[in-house]
Amino acid sequence: MTLPLWQQLTFLSPVSEQRAETHVAWLAEGLGAGTVADVGCGWAELLLRVVARAPRARGLGVDLDADRVEHARTVATERGLRDRVELVAGAGVEHLPERVEALVAVGASQVWGATPEVGPDDAYDQPLDYTAALRALRRAVPRGGRVYYAEAVWSRPPTPEAVAPLGGRDDELVALPELLDLAKEAGFGVLGFGESTLQEWDDFESGFAAGHVAWLAAHEPDHPEAAAVRERADRQYAAYLRGYRGVLGFAHLRLVAL
Ligand SMILES: C[S@@+](CC[C@H](N)C(=O)[O-])C[C@H]1O[C@@H](n2cnc3c(N)ncnc32)[C@H](O)[C@@H]1O
């Protein structure tokens, strides 16, 4: 009914080009012939950029969504990276090797927190298990290993309007100071931290809804599916603009294993 998200978004999270570049350069630096894994990689744009930047490195991307993984394979081939990047459609816990030199987990903590029967959407109905994710990431890298961990946090105390279209509970997320504590407790040093700006969020949310709007522009108003598509676009914008804009945040941590 709508276009694939990769046609509207560069990343499946509120990440600007500038922020991506900072993290790609940091991960690629010193990777040598090591492997960088991206768990919950989406269509693996960040992973492919790291591998392109580190010419001897290998990459492993894992995501449950087979269409996104297939798109990642196509892009890897187009960029001449296919022989150095393995892209797997499946559960992150099953395919993450015991040991890699660097890791990416961006908006993917539910990989470790949800029970296997619970899908990625349902996983947000319970408090996000940052600790399970951070401990699993720590186990998979050697001392000194670099991890780019990014996840949703509360930027401001949650309001009823903000939580209603999300998980419906104030304890779904923590704020940035608590997240840094959890990362340290899991055995990491925090080399850098930040939160997505409102502009990154606006770009992300409008990109998300743009597929619906593009569909409406390409079809007659009396198309049998038009009302449903319009309703989805309106719901998306209302959830954000009248709900969690400025309250839901996205934290970015540059972690080193201690
Ligand atoms: C918010 S998106 C982020 C994607 C990507 N890291 C990015 O920033 O562009 C989270 C991704 O995690 C994937 N995912 C959710 N649960 C997973 C699991 N158990 N194993 C692997 N991938 C999972 C989803 O399919 C989705 O593509």
Describe the secondary-structure layout:
Blueprint: H1 17-28, E1 35-39, H2 45-53, E2 58-63, H3 66-78, E3 85-89, H4 92-95, E4 102-106, H5 110-113, H6 130-140, E5 146-154, H7 160-163, H8 176-185, E6 188-195, H9 198-218, H10 226-244, E7 248-257
Parallel strand pairs: 1-2, 1-4, 2-3, 4-5
Antiparallel strand pairs: 5-7, 6-7
The structure holds S-adenosylmethionine (SAM).
Q: What ranges have pLDDT less than 50 throughout 5 or more consecutive residues?
A: none
Proportion in helices: 40-55%
Shape: globular
What is the mean predicted local confidence, pLDDT? Answer: 93
Structural class: alpha/beta
Task: Report the β-strand fraction as a percent range.
Answer: 15-25%
Bound molecules: S-adenosylmethionine
User: Tally the helices: what do you get?
Assistant: 10
CATH topology: Rossmann fold
Return the CATH architecture: 3-Layer(aba) Sandwich
**Domain count:** 1
Gyration radius, in Å: 18 Å
Attribute tags:
binds S-adenosylmethionine; Rossmann fold; 258 residues; seven-stranded mixed beta sheet; alpha/beta; globular
